[in-house]
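Encode chain A's predicted structure.
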Amino acid sequence: MTKKKDKITKKDPKKELSGWIDYKNKVNNNEKKRVSASLTKLQAERRHALLTRLGFIILFSLCCILALGYYVSPKANVASVQVKGAPELNSKQVVKTANISPGNKIVFCLLKGKEYSKQLSDAFPEIEKVQVSVQNTNHLILTIKERPIIGYIHEGIGYRKILATGKVGSQVIDKNKIDKNKPLFIGYNQKVSLSEDIKVYASLPQHIRDQVKMLSGETRRPTQIVLVMKDNNIVIGNLSTIKSKIQYYDKIKSQLKEPSVIDFEIGAYSRPLTQAEKVKLGLT
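Encoded structure for chain A:
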């Protein structure tokens, strides 16, 4: 039996090597393209970062130049000062107390808001705080917030504000400028403790305070307080107990047929007002 010889396949070495070389060249070319693309992107990013930094430096320099130019120009100085929110106060006196002059720089005035508040509240009891602002580049505005008012005390030909702090305002104002809804404190002098009556009045319920027209300092005893109500009733009480007893006022007044004296000093009783009492308190 004759054996068949296996067929031997011959490969061309040059052809095989040529294929390998082509593959390596293709791979190298792709790698070169990727490296080239990465370098291009990196260069673009560096240029962008450089331009950004350069733009920031230029912008910052321009801002500094403009700020310096404004600072040395007349526009940086205070041209005028306007006081708002306190019509009874003398504006010139307020500006003088704050020590603001045309030579001051606007930017420094804006930074001294708390200092102005302290200076002015120390000088004027009615001032609670001050807000500083600028209008039209160099016109300074002082906006004043006044303290709450609980009443007025007569002085000379006018009245002074009685503040929630217990202090009396610095300015004497005309009668036609007072708030008619706030009570008047009359007949008080240096021998009478105004501060005690203010504290007691401020501690009363709001609906009772709204009914008070006047407090009289002409009392028989230092511990006594006299309230003249808007319905023309007179309430007399003791400084230490009036707050707890005044709650019965509305019930008692509903039973009255004419203006009366309601005495809360010892117990609680009422009697009609005499003509002399009406004249004395200006109720006729």
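The chain has a mean pLDDT of 83.
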